[in-house]
Write a structure and sequence with these properties.
The protein has 5 helices and 4 strands; from the N terminus they run E-E-E-E-H-H-H-H-H. With 209 residues, it is mainly alpha-helical. It has 3 domains: 2-37, no CATH class; 52-104; 147-207, no CATH class. It is elongated, with a radius of gyration of 61 Å.
């Protein structure tokens, strides 16, 4: 807080808590002048709302209040002037006129319910609905024996294809020519051995004939 001497215009900086709200006397150290210092209240900050907006809101509030007053007054008048007897009499007249215009329904011509045959009607039995089941696979899974036979046939087929197509394989893969030729010679030796064994068996059987 800044203080200014009214006589010599000396300025002093004082903390805010030194001067109480009610004010106090202070003395200038230069000219020994004593004067009373009071704290002026801080001015209120003006709101940032536009005055035109405030006036529009006030007008809307007045209109709404007036509409509510009119509504409440009209409802009170209606409730005060309403007469239950007067309202029920026209309804009774309307009911009698409608009964006179509308002839009695066909229900009066129907026989009593005791004369009606109450035998239960037979209904056809409903066909049993079987729950939808997923289609089963027709091909059962292979067992170990069948898998072994399949692997053996596949291996024999591969070896037979290697023996039959040996020339084309050596042309396509020259690096495996020695291995393919060794396999062909081995197969030829087995064929000759089987052929000689078969011829011996045939000669042995002819000896008994």
């Amino acid at each position: 807080m800044r203080l200014l001497c009214p006589k010599c215009d000396a300025e002093y900086e004082v903390a805010d808590g030194v001067i109480p709200n009610a004010g106090r006397d202070v003395q200038c150290s230069s000219c020994d002048t004593i004067w009373f210092v009071e704290i002026k209240p801080a001015p209120l900050k003006s709101s940032g709302i536009d005055p035109e907006v405030i006036s529009i809101l006030q007008q809307e509030a007045q209109r709404e209040l007036a509409a509510r007053n009119v509504e409440t007054s009209s409802t009170s008048r209606l409730s005060a002037t309403a007469n239950p007897a007067e309202t029920t009499e026209p309804l009774a007249g309307i009911q009698t006129t409608t009964n006179a215009k509308n002839p009695p329904s066909r229900r009066n011509h129907l026989p009593p319910i005791e004369d009606v045959d109450t035998k239960p009607t037979k209904t056809a039995p409903m066909a049993e609905i079987s729950p939808t089941s997923e289609p089963e696979d027709d091909v059962p899974p292979l067992n170990n024996r069948q898998l072994g036979i399949l692997v053996a046939l596949t291996l024999l087929g591969s070896l037979a294809a290697l023996y039959v197509f040996a020339p084309k394989i050596t042309e396509a893969f020259p690096a495996y020519t020695d291995w393919v030729n060794f396999y062909i010679l081995w197969v030829d030796d087995i064929r000759q051995w089987l052929q000689s064994g078969l011829s011996r068996i045939l000669e042995y059987r002819k000896s008994f004939g």
